[in-house]
Amino acid sequence: MIYLIKTLVCAAAAAAAAPNPFTSSAGYPSPWGNGGEGWDEAYAKAREFVAKLTLVEKVNLTTGTGWEADRCVGATGSVPRLGFRGFCLQDGPLGIRYTDHNSAFPAGINAAATWSRRLLRARGEAMGAEFHGKGIDVQLGPVAGPLGRVPQGGRNWEGFGPDPYLTGVSMAHTIQGIQSRGVLACAKHYILNEQEHYRNSISVRLDDRTMHELYLWPFADAVRAGVASVMCSYNKIEGVYACENNYTTNFLLKNELGFQGFVMSDWGAQKTTLGSALNGLDMAMPGDFMGGNRPPYNALWGGNLTEHVLRGQVPQWRVDDMVVRIMAAYFKVRRDSVGKYAERPGEVNFSSWTTKREGWMHESSNSTWGVVNGFVDVQGGGGEHAALIREIGAKSIVLLKNTGVLPLTKPASIAVVGRDAQDDPRGPNACKERACIEATVAMGWGSGTAEFPYLISPATAIKTRAAADGTTFFNTTSNWDLETAKAVARNASVAVVCVVAHAGENFVSVGGNAGDRNNLTLWDNGDALIRAVASVNPNTIVVLHTPGPVALAQHKSHPNVSAILWAGYPGQESGNALIDVLYGAVNPQARSPFTWAESPEQYGASLLFSAPDPRNPEQTFSEGVFIDYRHFQRAGIAPTYEFGFGLSYTTFEYRNLRVVVGNSTQGGAQVVMQGSTKPAPTYGTLDRRVGANLAPEGFSRITPYVYPWLSGPNVSVALLQNVSTTAATDGSAQPLLPAGGAPGGNPSLYDVLYTVRAEIENTGAVAGTEIPQLYVQLGGQENPWGVLRGFDDVTLAPGESKTVTFELTRRDVSNWNVSSQNWEIWTKEKVIFLGSSSTRIRLNATLPAPPGMRWSHG
Ligand SMILES: *[C@@H]1O[C@H](CO)[C@@H](O)[C@H](O)[C@H]1NC(C)=O
Ligand SMILES: *[C@@H]1O[C@H](CO)[C@@H](O)[C@H](O)[C@H]1NC(C)=O
Ligand SMILES: *[C@@H]1O[C@H](CO)[C@@H](O)[C@H](O)[C@H]1NC(C)=O
Ligand SMILES: *[C@@H]1O[C@H](CO)[C@@H](O)[C@H](O)[C@H]1NC(C)=O
Ligand SMILES: *[C@@H]1O[C@H](CO)[C@@H](O)[C@H](O)[C@H]1NC(C)=O
Ligand SMILES: *[C@@H]1O[C@H](CO)[C@@H](O)[C@H](O)[C@H]1NC(C)=O
Ligand SMILES: *[C@@H]1O[C@H](CO)[C@@H](O)[C@H](O)[C@H]1NC(C)=O
Ligand SMILES: *[C@@H]1O[C@H](CO)[C@@H](O)[C@H](O)[C@H]1NC(C)=O
Ligand SMILES: *[C@@H]1O[C@H](CO)[C@@H](O)[C@H](O)[C@H]1NC(C)=O
Ligand SMILES: *[C@@H]1O[C@H](CO)[C@@H](O)[C@H](O)[C@H]1NC(C)=O
Ligand SMILES: *[C@@H]1O[C@H](CO)[C@@H](O)[C@H](O)[C@H]1NC(C)=O
């Protein structure tokens, strides 16, 4: 590999006439994994393992056995000859779906709202330990797609909010947490899966700069963090399905970002045998056509892929690369032997398809009855995970308004109002997939859910606390009986009203909301309920369980609404986390990970609810990089509450902003990758005889189930004459991309160019945590007013001050140049802003231009 040192003098945005990379053939061939930073040992082990495999054994590891064919939501075939069981893949991003004795963690959006790397990491570790404990190999999370282009996006809550930097940091820490427990993480859904309407057919068009600076950004962080797998999404990009897309998978993910793990399809997102294989898919999920049986293979891969390899349509190096990537990911997280979990990971110990002890080993075919569920308790000994969930729950509550009513100190009486405060008498899991609002809501709906082991409701937690304090407790449940709500609230010193909006995945609709929210108002008569309570009680406290923003202006300005708290989707400790903040045991540190406004239109990007041609829904992300706060600032729209906003029970002062160029070890010139890869390697010999690729004599098949063998002795596997080497099948050495070269992209993008320091002091009377946020103005019309490029959580005793340090990397101050296909520091003057939100700026400074460069103004 040759490094070319490039001078840093670059023209600004010479973008206009660039070729459209989405329609070039740059995506061939599919890059073969080659190890590198953090992967070398894993690759050595994987190559040794794969070299022992026959073609059908290899194919077995690339293909799911079919929907409900085994006990996890996804399972691959196994290698019985070597005692290697197939992979078990299980939802989801906030805990284990479809089992018992697991925890229900706060949703991704809550984890992001803490702005705490420590808590993001701890949440990942605890989730990883739970998946490990059930024998699961791959946790299907975390989520960076949807990013949150539009606030109504049904699955936004599964991820970390619309800012790519906050999402990227959250992805990296979550992934490292999960994988430290010997479980493979999966960064999903790759890419541009920004809405639920038409998600299986929508074609998204966007410009290359927006792709890099916004939607791809957090996936780059995931890859740099060593993520083991990536899930391609259901939608199309520029007319091509994500799981069949040589540009997004081969070119961007595997080549430019240097991803060394494997790409799996979302469930049913694979469309063709050959297209998916050559365009970079490595594992087909769930393997079949989502149920039923379509002979002879019941699959696009399985035996169908074996046939294609034998006929020369899929080169051996490509199928070898699939399996090496899968096994390297397995060894990378030390799944064969993990630190304190030194025992070989146990058998899968639960069944997604029954809550009972006994059931079918293979549900889709009702085959082999036996013990399927060990009811293994994975919640961490001594309530360890519950304590963490409560801490994250409390530290993810954003205090949006407080006229002084909070924190509470032994009020004489307290009224709890609203259905969303209540326990469900049928239990917390009464609604399948969590798709209802009949009691308190603590997670969204769909596949990103887990069963609650229990759910502490706000009413129960407040009642317990009231009893301890000698506070009289009143409680009313109906959202529609406003007279009763008023009567109850009128009597109380304070009234807590819990209200809801809900969102989820589009295989279920709730109240006519097909995953995405139809509007940004509260559900279930919530606004009228708040108004009724506030009309009689001057200490009205509003608690929001919503997946994102709702219209709040009327309550923000209402004199009797004394406090507003966003609690998001906090998980099983919901009520306990809430009282920690209400009563001041936790001084709120959360800051809003999205912008609050009054209507969807104000966000400047729109969700496609109804396509002119429903068979061919198309959408252009014409707003470019201007989503969420970037849009509000440019359009001059004052939000109700801005991105990054949240109150504390104390106050902070900012002082003494300093910028140091580089640091003692870094800050050199940008390196442009040059040179080329090695040719594609192959492992083991390919036995082309039909007989070597058939099921063994007497093998007893179950149906439906996906197997790797040829369908029968009469299959012709003669090398096809018309298969010549094309760009897609060419295994010769390939040139490196200038922006590539290592996981996460060119390593010199991560050089520290500036170190920024400032002092923060707690000037109030109680201890608290401030979240200083660093925004960088990259300059020029093409760039937003500022983009988040640093944050910290700083806990301070009253009167205490600390120095905070932010490191700005080359990537942090660069833009994507679509012509040179590389990151460049444009010559526009760059200003940094340090503040307590995206608009509450306390300090600013101009960054010195890098050596050899002069800033231009305007
Ligand atoms: C490679 O991907 C591009 C963009 O998606 C597409 O236009 C092109 O047809 C693909 N090439 C082939 C041979 O499928
Ligand atoms: C493929 O996996 C299935 C399911 O685990 C197993 O029954 C079969 O024997 C495997 N085939 C080979 C060739 O190892
Ligand atoms: C095998 O793959 C082809 C597409 O490449 C598909 O048309 C066919 O349905 C598949 N066969 C089976 C039985 O799944
Ligand atoms: C499997 O058994 C269940 C009852 O236990 C039955 O409802 C279902 O139809 C059966 N499915 C198959 C594929 O035989
Ligand atoms: C899983 O559960 C089964 C059935 O209860 C039990 O025999 C086995 O020991 C359990 N395995 C692990 C790893 O807990
Ligand atoms: C609140 O009131 C409802 C309806 O009367 C009741 O079922 C529930 O138990 C009460 N909640 C608490 C925490 O007392
Ligand atoms: C309000 O308080 C009065 C006097 O303490 C009591 O008689 C009445 O039942 C209370 N009403 C409600 C709805 O709790
Ligand atoms: C918004 O949607 C919710 C949920 O469907 C519904 O309850 C509410 O009435 C809607 N708001 C408006 C203003 O239509
Ligand atoms: C606020 O509450 C008081 C009762 O304490 C009530 O008289 C007043 O009308 C309320 N204000 C508004 C704007 O509803
Ligand atoms: C310089 O930056 C690198 C990369 O972030 C870091 O590892 C190193 O500790 C820094 N050195 C100093 C003196 O801050
Ligand atoms: C930077 O801060 C100074 C001093 O508070 C202020 O006068 C100036 O307007 C700020 N600059 C920008 C670009 O906000």
TrEMBL record:
Enzyme Commission number(s) from the entry: 3.2.1.21
PROSITE patterns: GLYCOSYL_HYDROL_F3
BP GO annotations: glucan catabolic process
Keyword Glycoprotein on entry: yes
Alphabetically ordered keywords of this record: Carbohydrate metabolism, Glycoprotein, Glycosidase, Hydrolase, Polysaccharide degradation, Signal
Pfam families membership: Fn3-like (PF14310), Glyco_hydro_3 (PF00933), Glyco_hydro_3_C (PF01915)
MF (Gene Ontology): beta-glucosidase activity
Pathway(s) served: Glycan metabolism; cellulose degradation
Fibronectin type III-like domain mapped to chain residues: 770-838
Superkingdom as given in the UniProt entry: Eukaryota
Record's catalysed reaction(s): Hydrolysis of terminal, non-reducing beta-D-glucosyl residues with release of beta-D-glucose
Secretion signal span: 1-17
Family: Belongs to the glycosyl hydrolase 3 family.
Annotated protein name in UniProt: beta-glucosidase
